[in-house]
Amino acid sequence: MRLAVSRIALAGVFIVLAALAPGAGSAWVQAGPDGHLAYRADERGNTIPDFSRAGYGGGGVRLPEATGAFTLGPQPSGDDGARIQAALDEAGKRPVDARGLRGAVLLRRGLYRVEGTLAIRASGVVLRGEGADEDGTVILATGKKQRTLIEVGAPRATREIAEASRRDVTDAYVPWSAKTFALASTAGLRVGDRVVLRRVANDAWIHELGMDRIKNRPGAPAGETKQWKAEGFTMDFERTITAIDGPRVTLDAPVMNALDTKFGGGAVYRYTFPRIAQCGVENLRLVSAYEKGKETSDEAHAWIAVNLGAVENAWVRDVTAVHFSHAVQASGASIFTTTQDCAHLDPVSLITGSRRYSFSLNGQYGLVQRCTARGARHTFVTGSRVPGPNVFLDGQAVQSHADSGPHHRWAVGTLYDNISDDRQLRVQDRQWAGSGHGWAGAQQVLWNCTSPTIVVQQPPTAQNYAIGCVGKFVAGDWSPNAPRGLIESEGRPVTPRSLYLAQLDARLGAAAVANVGR
User: Fold this and answer.
1) Which one, of 38, 110, 103, 30, lies nearest residue 64 by Cα?
2) Mean pLDDT value across the chain
């Protein structure tokens, strides 16, 4: 029922897409008859990056099915939060199986009331219902407290860098699409090691972007708009070493932001990060109770449906979130996450900043696929300093109040693949928006996307791409004179239909593509 409703709401969008048969292949990504992909490089060796490691298990891995550990049924009245939480905690005490799973807490079909927050605190635990329809498993978030209904993993966690393990990158320039580069030393490093590639920012880079001279918000007191500071833009990319050849290392995913010695360069470190793994939320309908008649003003209610905190290899599937301001968000502490076949319907809040974000990817290796939204502001969105890779695939937004795209302060390495937003798609310099959003994103790729209006601008030192996109390309809202990004096949979709799936096929084969399909 949920998917049927979503398809009816989006029928007009599907009609538009169906009428546009794919055209020729892109000059920037060419698919050979054997499935191999060839990428065209710019003058510095940069290409469109490989996004195929995004998602659960590093891409191309089927979401697991956890066996039942505990089963609960609905009760006629009263709050159900304590007993659901007790079952989740007990499931977390069970031994893990060979897949790292402990078991699922199954909520039978019916209505459950929760005034607080449900938390999955241990690896291998799944919260499962019997359907996301109105007659499925419905969790009603009661009360007037703004909160997260389901919290998976710690909402905050700190990455610990081993400073003594530092190995400096010695290449003067490493393209954003590169996986291989030289280090001052590879001593102590091994294939299979998890490392952080730290990209350092300096004042020269901030100045090159123009982010040390953002115009003050018109009419605002002097100094309200904050200039960027280099120390706030160090970015840590978590990667796995796949090969070592003398001083050169190869990583599992591209660096996503060029490393340039004149703008700070980079280094590789060992690290630790406390996360739980193999956790999921599935087959549920989550509803936030609010004061009827105040759909655009009531904010005293449950705010976020599901938050993926400090997690690895976690998922949310077949979940419908109704009336929450935010549906599913993957935090900056998350890695290798999949959100699929989910819906965000009729959010309740003021229609203004920091509200109505449906599907947010703020960590690394995140995948949101086949998700829909109705009435959101920013349906498919990233936050500040998001390292990527991240992918939004086959998503639709209707009755939108704002745009989909990177929201602020330099998210890198995001693919918007066959995304349709009935209002706007934006990749731009947002200047004084917020408290100084500035350049929202770089190495952002819009592939076969559709929207009435589209903005794609090129930041200094970086690039953004729009390939095979259908819509009217317009000047930016804050910086209309900023240079255009790389725009190809305007108004005509290209082949392959999906860049992510083509990259996955090229890396792992057709079976991997089937694993992430319906």
Assistant:
1) 103
2) 95
Question: Which residues, at least 6 apart from 396, have a Cβ–Cβ distance to it below 8 Å?
Answer: 6, 10, 13, 372, 373, 419, 420, 421
Cβ atoms of residues 462 and 436 within 8 Å? no
Per-residue pLDDT of 357-386, as tens digits, reads 999 999 999 999 999 999 999 999 999 999
Long-range contact set of residues 167-170: C-beta below 8 Å, sequence gap at least 24: 167/267, 167/268, 167/269, 168/265, 168/266, 168/267, 169/197, 169/259, 169/265, 169/266, 169/267, 169/268, 170/247
Q: Which amino acid is at 8?
A: I
Say if CB 239 and CB 252 are below 8 A apart: yes
Q: Where in the chain is the domain with CATH 2.160.20.10?
A: 56-157+275-516
Entry pTM: 0.96
HEC-encoded secondary structure of 376-392: CCEEEEECCCCCCCEEE
- Cα gap 164→149, rounded to integer Å: 40
CATH code, 56-157+275-516: 2.160.20.10
CATH 2.40.30 domain range(s) in the chain:
160-272
Q: Does domain 160-272 have CATH number 2.40.30?
A: yes
Give the pLDDT band of residue 21 (cuts 50, 70, 90).
Answer: low
DSSP string, 324-367: -SEEEEE-TT-EEEEEES-EEE---S-SSTT--EEEEE-SEEEE
Structure tokens at 280: 């999921």
Q: What whole-number distance in Å separates Cα of residue 37 and Cα of residue 21?
A: 21
Band (281; pLDDT cuts 50, 70, 90) = very high
- DSSP summary character for residue 56: G
From CA 440, how far away is CA 384, in angstroms rounded?
A: 8
